Amino acid sequence: MDARARSVLSRVLRRVPSRDMGALLEKWSCLPEDQLRAVDYTRPRATLTEHIIGLCEDNSLGLKHVTNLEMIYHIENPDQGSWHACQLTDPQDDAASVELVQFKEQFKAHLLGVVRHISIKIKKHEDDAIWIRIAWGDNFHKPNHLKPTYAVHHLHTSYVFISNLAAKHKIFLSQALEVATKHTSIKEGHLTTKSLTAMRDLLLRRYPQVFPSAQLRILKERNAPPLHPCIAQEHSELEQTRHQMACEAFGPGPAPKLETAVYKLETRYRGHGSQTLAEGEEFFRGVVRFSSSSLLESFHHCVASGVAEGPVTPLLSAITRKGRNYFVITDKGPVPPGQSAHRT
Amino acid sequence: MALLTPFSKVPEVNTATVLLIENEEELQVKLANSIVQHEKDFNVNVRLAKKLPLPVENKEARPRLDLIVFIINLLSERSFQSAETSLAHLHSDCFLGKVCFLVTNARCGSLTQERLLSVRRLASSHQCPVLCSEHRTADGVQASAMRLLTLLKVSAGMSPLSTTALFLSSLTRCSLSSDLEEDFLQ
């Protein structure tokens, strides 16, 4: 096993917690069972790592196996690092008939043709997600396996989730995805989170949702213990409507765990205070940033408990409606950041 | 403007009703549960509201209110302002012993001293008592519930010593003399 493989392996092993190590190595199934059973997982980390590296060398495992292990680890623990979403647009006529084998061939063929040194691995997970691991190199360097890019795509949806992609490689990946999925273009999704599952649930709509209906269907409030019969709420109607509004905007049940929402303001100052600010031709630039351990739950609570009054502003409900968490607000209303509003 | 009047309905036998008004709607539920569980001698109804005026729809069904409690969180300016605006919706007859203020977080250092002073000024101008409550522990909530029950018993006319609400309020009402005020401001 050469130095590169060893460094990648030790890096992966360092990140895995000891209790998950056994299961991971079993899933990898590159080490023989009797040797695996002999490993003592309660030893200190350094000795454990050395022991496992020794076992791998005895079994003459190579870089390919090590990258396989890394990929399995990432598939099992997807909520690490920082993911952002891209959306494929303008599908060609036969985009719906693309299947896995065809996708793999086209993707690999395109990238191998364009970049000189590159290492690509594609795996299909049970829930129809295609995981792609790419280690980039260039004309003078071998692929760098310490900083691989991961991309996840569900076939026949229009979203791709990408982690750890450098700006200079973005164009190659975008082109390859367009070619392999038979779409004409790919654009920014403006959604960045730490948790892949949250991003996937939000964009593929896999969380409980409530659709606003003309008749006011009052939802049962979750987690509210029934009150003693002698206790009565005076404002129960109000509370029900607030709860309904919150559920329509942010979902009634456990919502995907987003961490931040950023609103970039490019508007004119309209307050009554400072005259100089209001007169200037320049935009008043500001950034409003909401952060929380689970943003949608916080918004839901704000609206349902009456801290934020009135109907939910479309700026906030756009997070779930459009599946984004980065917005640019100009005077004419929110526009996607690709276009800019020019004012003379 | 329809004001909340205390004597417009006939009282029910062996029943007392207390109205808890709180902007944040957190402590009132805990207090309500505690009050209802502790009183065995007579029926207690608890009504919870966020602010006054109360919805008109409930007017028929609502029993006669014996005690109105404003719960103010001293850490929030909005809580105090909401209580102040709600006071305007009470008929002046209510202030003869049927209104009391309950403040929380009075121990939280210098942040709350000025607001506590304003609450006390408000209470003394309306001649109502101010109770301080510890809402983070179950014991604290229970203690506040017992104190409110004592006040409730008197203002519902169920006190065995035939005390009236007016008499009790003259003993318990918050008074703020001018030299006390200066002490606080220092």
TrEMBL record, chain A:
Q: Which UniProt keywords apply?
A: Centromere, Chromosome, Nucleus
Localized where?
A: Chromosome, Centromere; Nucleus
The GO cellular component terms are: chromosome, centromeric region; nucleoplasm
Q: Which GO BP terms apply?
A: CENP-A containing chromatin assembly; chromosome segregation
Task: Supply the InterPro entries for this chain.
Answer: CENP-NAC/CAD_complex, Chl4/mis15/CENP-N
Q: What is its main location?
A: nucleus
Which is one Pfam family of this protein?
CENP-N
- Please, which domain of life does this record's source organism belong to? Eukaryota
The protein's matches in PANTHER family, at most eight in alphabetical order, are given as: CENTROMERE PROTEIN N
**What family, per the record?**
Belongs to the CENP-N/CHL4 family.
Give the protein name, as stated in the record. Answer: Centromere protein N
Q: Which organism is it from?
A: Danionella cerebrum
TrEMBL record, chain B:
- As recorded in UniProt, coiled-coil segments are none
Q: Does the keyword Endoplasmic reticulum apply?
A: no
* Record localization: Chromosome, Centromere; Nucleus
Q: Which GO terms describe its cellular component?
A: chromosome, centromeric region; nucleus
Name this polypeptide is given: Centromere protein M
Domain of life of the native organism: Eukaryota
Q: What InterPro entries does its record include?
A: Centromere_Cenp-M (IPR020987), P-loop_NTPase (IPR027417)
Q: Which Pfam families match?
A: CENP-M
Q: Which Gene3D superfamilies match?
A: P-loop containing nucleotide triphosphate hydrolases
Taxon lineage: Eukaryota, Metazoa, Chordata, Craniata, Vertebrata
Q: Which UniProt keywords apply?
A: Centromere, Chromosome, Nucleus
